[in-house]
Amino acid sequence: MTEWLDPAFDWVGHFSPSPYVRALTAIVLFLLLAKLVDTLVVAAMGRLLRRWVGSRRAEAVDIGHRTIFRTVVLIGLMIATTLAGLSPRIESITLSIIDTILILLWIVAAVRGSALTLDALSQRPSPPAWARPTTAPLLNNMLRVVLALAAVYAILLAWNVNVTGLVASAGILGLALSFAAQDTLGNLFAGVAILTDQPYRIGDYIVLDSGERGQVTHVGLRSTRILTRDDEEISIPNGIIGKAKIINESGGPHVAYRLRVAIRVAYGVDIDKVMELLDARLPNIPAFVKHRTGTFPWRIRPGIRVAGLDWYRHPALRGLALSHELNCEIYRLDREGIRIPYPQRDLHIRDWQGSGTEPARSRLIAGHSVGGIDL
Questions:
Q1: Which pLDDT tens digit goes with each residue over 328-350?
Q2: How far is it, in rounded angstroms, from Cα 205 to Cα 57?
Q3: What whole-number distance in Å separates Cα of residue 240 and Cα of residue 328?
Q4: Model confidence pLDDT, tens digit, residues 212-228
Q5: Which H, E and C letters describe 73-137, residue by residue?
Q6: What DSSP state is assigned to residue 374?
Q7: Is the pTM for the entire model greater than 0.85?
Q8: E-strand stretches of the chain
Q9: How far apart are CA 153 and CA 144, in angstroms?
């Protein structure tokens, strides 16, 4: 490992053959080398991170500067330790200490660097799904756990600890815990999927397939909480809500929500007059959206639609504008003398003669008539 330093050591050896002098020479050379490498790394990082501005760029350069400089110095200390002529036990302990410091140095740099990178990615106008503001903290915490486990494993190896038995025991323990905490793990993975996919966000109004409706107040790893209009908070495990059908009323390109109200008027009324009056009064409602734009033409502005004439029912909400025009034209046939039949029922009264002193009685066989137009 020190062959490339042999010329320098031979030159120092002319003045002093002492191993301590050779070790000190290695330290001095690696300090100079650390300064040189540090200058090159800082310049390279400055060019690579030129798009980063402000304190984020300065912090990234500081992480690279400190890590590289200290790494080269620690490598010099390791070489100096092997050249100092120490006893095998003291040399082994010293090398293990330096290895531990080097491992911790890089783990800390990795934790800081990953957090800084995730923060920079989450601030982009279109961040990736795994680096959104809602998922970046989760991923950052997971990376910290993985790095901490890797650091423990590397430190044990640096101190010559046999980790085979520990790894096997940890595997058995993890298997037992996975069986004991199936529901918790299911909720955890479902929470990660919800935070990544984002079918709803905090502040959205959602409707569950069981009928509950409320505003999302918290999206965690274990559960999601919604607050109903009755000021009741419902906590739903993510494993359940991840499999349920969710209607997000705040989803789509617009937050505005469409409300359909059925109004029935009698046959014979002027439907054009009815639509004119309703169209004039609806904008008086403060919460009414007067001008709305959207993807579909019928979303340009709120309006009134004739949905049916009693004897005609549209089976779905699709094509509502077309069915409105069709129903209006059918209803206007009345102006041409073509009458629309009213729904009716026939009443039959059956009489029978009572026996003895029992008087004659009547029985109502059929019901009443109902007719009208659905708006």
A1: 766 676 665 656 666 667 776 66
A2: 39
A3: 46
A4: 899 999 888 788 999 99
A5: HHHHHHHHHHHCCCCHHHHHHHHHHHHHHHHHHHHHHHHHHHHHHHHHHHCCCCCCHHHCCCCHH
A6: E
A7: no
A8: 205-207, 213-219, 223-228, 233-237, 247-248, 264-265, 349-352, 361-364, 373-374
A9: 14
